[in-house]
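lol forgot to send this yesterday, sorry. struct tokens for the thing we talked abt
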């Protein structure tokens, strides 16, 4: 009862700590792409870092509530005839109230700005990459896609009825019909079903359907762009494939739409897969079920892991109760020892499986490869640490619930410390067996039998070693004849290893057999898979230049993630002198936003009077230079705006614009002028062609005058006198 009362007394602290972690998780997942755009492990470490920053803040708020002048003492002081114990009664709720204050305070602008900076710091500290971008690029450019039967029939019907058989190809040979068919298949696999509420075969259970709905909600803008590009692709495909002599322009338009539909769809697919699966093996399996040409490696899931722990625990109970030569033991003590040993072996299996999966994934061809001894030793040491925690924690909880002390628990732990050798050796043994026999082409029962024998022999040696090291004094607590107990311990431990080895290798071989079938189906395909930029054309011409990797693009852009450039997002009033009439100022809106599909900042001009010259493009931010570059690149034509960084909300960005001007209407001339971008905060300033005498003309003109020479320089040709002196 004392333990229960202590738990109830401390429940406020327990609830507050757990609630604070939930708050940290929810906030760090804002925007939600933090979770769907990277691996679970890196996301989890980022949450831990962010949680560690919130703990001191929580403690400070709690101290202020308990001892501050505006805390609970102030509330108590305002209430007349209050109970003297009221202060203490309020103080016990300080942890929960402090969490609520932290949640509410984030709604204020200044606090939210600090919170965003803290999250950005933790994202960088956890080294979170744009894993979704890497996977999307891989799916779009280098991975084959084979639609399943139902989807294949649907794609065949769409292409045949709307365009014709000449546009249909599942050959995966890189031709234009093949890429066109592939793009239609990808779109109807993932994006199309959201409009007609069609069944999703690849989602599996309810969690998969819920994840799909969440990803499509977060990526609604990307999905809308995919819808628009899909319609354009169908029109371009109809024009190209039904033309007797298609022009290069038709081909370029079709190639561009195919690439955009593929990239946008694969971007959503990658985020869905990363959101659903926490491991590399799980992601490969889900992608293979969706039709991508992946052959997932052997796996050992949570169900098999939990079954292993249960079987080892049950087997341990049976050995301690029914094995001849054992002493009668208290039921609680039997359960404690069995559960501890079963969980330790479970951790050993988990560590061995992780190392084996990494080894198999790295191995190339049929070469045996060096054994992953270093990784297995590290995994074994981690398992030893977890086993030590179990050997202390489980008996300690049991002892406290029964009213005992911790002295006996620590004494028994020290006496049986050598028992951690068994899970350590099990990790090494299973890791080596799975690494080399998990890929065997023998029948599963042969592999299971060999794995059982090998792991049983390893754990027999481990049991013999442990029994020798702990000594007869400890063995006398469990066996009638301690001098003969070494053989019994070695036998029981070896039988445990036999069962675990057979079970693990059987599951490994089954999944490997499925993987081999998928790999052979891909290898025996009569088609050759081409990357998009190397694929031959049915018209015999050259394809567009290779698409640059997004990691290379990120290096060129000067940034990799949204966190570092989020401060630049928003709308700006852009104004500069008009090239046709210098006394007129042209003012319009430039919007800067983060594009999830491209993983970069994009800008787009709006509300231009001369709407035919509207521009959009990427934002480049050079490292170590206080400028932003707005670059428009279209068919060889380049327009550049280079301005200073808007460090403060009320400080405009100033610089130069370099573009082409055609004042005569026919001949283009390079032109440059000062330009200013002022952030739109409360209201939009005057737009259009601003002439002298207009309301905002003078303020615009003064801003433009400040550009030269601080933020831009026009270097004219040297005067004549300087030229003569030089001669």
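and heres what i got for the seq, position by position
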């Amino acid at each position: 009862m004392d333990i229960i009362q202590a738990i109830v007394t401390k429940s406020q602290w327990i609830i507050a700590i757990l609630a604070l972690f939930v708050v940290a998780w929810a906030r760090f997942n804002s925007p939600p792409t933090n979770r769907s755009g990277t691996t679970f492990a890196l996301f989890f470490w980022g949450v831990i870092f962010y949680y560690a920053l919130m703990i001191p803040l929580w403690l400070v708020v709690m101290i202020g509530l308990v001892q501050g002048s505006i805390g609970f003492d102030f509330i108590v002081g305002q209430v007349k005839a209050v109970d003297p114990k009221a202060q203490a009664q309020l103080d016990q709720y300080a942890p929960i109230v402090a969490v609520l204050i932290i949640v509410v305070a984030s709604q204020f602008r200044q606090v939210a700005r600090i919170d965003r900076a803290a999250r950005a710091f933790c994202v960088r500290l956890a080294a979170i990459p744009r894993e979704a971008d890497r996977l999307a690029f891989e799916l779009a450019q280098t991975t084959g896609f084979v639609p399943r039967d139902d989807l294949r029939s649907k794609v065949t019907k769409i292409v045949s009825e709307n365009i014709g058989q000449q546009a249909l190809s599942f050959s995966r040979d890189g031709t234009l019909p093949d890429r066109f068919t592939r793009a239609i298949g990808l779109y109807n696999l993932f994006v199309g079903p959201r409009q007609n509420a069609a069944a999703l075969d690849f989602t599996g259970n309810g969690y998969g359907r819920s994840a799909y709905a969440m990803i499509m909600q977060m990526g609604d803008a990307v999905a809308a762009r995919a819808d628009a590009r899909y319609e354009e692709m169908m029109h371009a495909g109809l024009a190209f494939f039904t033309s007797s002599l298609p022009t290069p322009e038709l081909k370029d338009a079709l190639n561009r739409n195919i690439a955009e539909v593929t990239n946008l769809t694969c971007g959503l697919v990658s985020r869905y897969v990363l959101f659903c699966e926490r491991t590399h093996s799980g992601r490969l399996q889900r992608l293979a079920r969706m039709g991508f040409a992946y052959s997932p490696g052997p796996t050992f899931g949570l169900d098999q892991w939990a079954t292993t722990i249960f079987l080892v625990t049950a087997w341990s109970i049976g050995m301690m109760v029914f094995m001849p030569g054992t002493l009668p033991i208290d039921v609680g003590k039997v359960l404690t020892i069995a559960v501890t040993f079963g969980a330790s072996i479970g951790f050993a299996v988990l560590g061995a499986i992780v190392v084996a999966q990494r080894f198999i994934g790295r191995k190339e061809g049929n070469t045996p490869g060096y054994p992953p001894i270093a990784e297995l030793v590290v995994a074994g040491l981690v398992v030893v640490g977890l086993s030590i925690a179990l050997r202390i924690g489980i008996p300690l909880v049991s002892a406290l619930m029964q009213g005992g002390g911790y002295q006996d628990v620590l004494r028994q732990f020290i006496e049986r410390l050598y028992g951690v050798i068994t899970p350590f050796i099990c990790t090494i043994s299973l890791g080596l067996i799975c690494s080399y026999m998990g890929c065997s082409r023998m029948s599963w029962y042969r592999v299971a039998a060999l794995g059982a024998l090998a792991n049983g022999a390893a754990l027999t040696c481990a049991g013999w070693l442990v029994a020798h090291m702990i000594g007869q004094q400890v063995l006398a607590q469990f066996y009638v004849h301690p001098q003969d107990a070494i053989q019994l311990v070695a036998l029981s431990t070896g039988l445990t290893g036999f069962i675990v080895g057979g079970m693990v290798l059987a599951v490994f071989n089954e999944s490997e057999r499925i993987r081999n079938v998928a790999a052979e189906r891909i290898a025996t395909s009569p088609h050759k898979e081409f990357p998009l930029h190397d694929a031959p054309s049915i018209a015999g011409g050259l394809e567009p230049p290779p698409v640059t990797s997004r990691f290379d693009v990120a290096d060129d852009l000067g940034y990799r993630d949204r966190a570092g450039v989020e401060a630049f997002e928003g709308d700006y009033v852009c104004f500069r002198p008009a090239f046709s009439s210098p006394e007129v100022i042209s003012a319009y809106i430039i919007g800067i936003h983060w594009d999830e599909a491209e993983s970069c900042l994009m800008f787009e001009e709006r509300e231009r009077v001369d709407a035919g010259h509207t521009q959009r493009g990427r934002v480049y931010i050079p490292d170590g230079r206080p400028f932003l570059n707005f670059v428009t690149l279209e068919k060889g034509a380049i327009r550049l705006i280079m301005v200073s960084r808007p460090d403060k909300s009320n400080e405009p960005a100033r610089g130069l614009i370099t573009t082409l001007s055609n004042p005569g209407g026919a001949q283009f001339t390079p032109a440059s002028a000062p330009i200013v971008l002022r952030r739109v905060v409360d209201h939009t300033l005057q737009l259009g062609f601003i002439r002298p005498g207009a309301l905002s003309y003078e303020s615009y003109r003064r801003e433009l005058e400040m550009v030269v020479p601080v933020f831009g320089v026009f270097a004219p040709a040297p005067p004549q006198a300087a030229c003569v002196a030089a001669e």
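The longest helix spans residues 485-523. anyway ping me if u want another try
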